[in-house]
Amino acid sequence: MAKTSKIHYEEILIQDFIKFFEEDSNYDLEIKVGEEPNVKIFRGHSQIFIARSSYFKSAFTREWVKKNNGIINFEKPNISPEIFEIIIRYIYTGIVQFENSRTDLLFELLIAFDELNFDYLVNDLQKYLLKKGDICEQVLQYHLVKEWKPIVIVVFPYDAVEHDELDISPNEVIEITQKFDDGWAIGLNRNTGIEGAFPMICTAIPETVNRVNSRIIFEYLPSCKRE
Fold this sequence. Notes:
This protein is of the alpha+beta class and 227 residues long. It has 9 helices and 8 strands. The chain has 2 domains: 14-96, Potassium Channel Kv1.1, Chain A; 134-224, no CATH class. 42% of the residues lie in helices and 16% in strands. β3 and β4 (71-76) form a beta hairpin. α2 crosses α3 and α4 crosses α5. The radius of gyration is 21 Å and the shape is globular.
């Protein structure tokens, strides 16, 4: 049986989609992102969004989706224009670049990927962050830049970390963090069972604790081990 010869033109396809996106024509979707004064409206093609994201597929196929003259109007105030620019280019091209990006941008991107159900991007970005360097320092820098209020900082004593992973569940972290009205949390010393404040910052998560997938938090904890 003769072998079938296949010629691949992925690069041409990507360039065609980039042109399709940048020409801003024949769109049927407007997405307003960000909060005042940092707001931007992106135009796109709903079928491409539906094909690329289960989140948008669910959002755009519901009966209550807003339409104006055949144009879907959608809002994502919790995602900044800078982050959504990266996301929409990924949707159209399949390309996203983590290298040489600011720490605060990478963390915002991680949360946005998780919310929009880009699980494979969440996994890849987590791996990149873990390889990038001191994740504890990066998280602290992100907190100082973003000044989330209330912010939840989960800290653990270095002597409680004896192996590559902490023996603590996501539910325990949530239970600990919810005990504090001011938005700050302390760690649980697994050796003594005594709760106390410790100097090692391991991760930072936004005010809605349950909104962020726990795997994002716990992927970081092993890297916070003090030598």
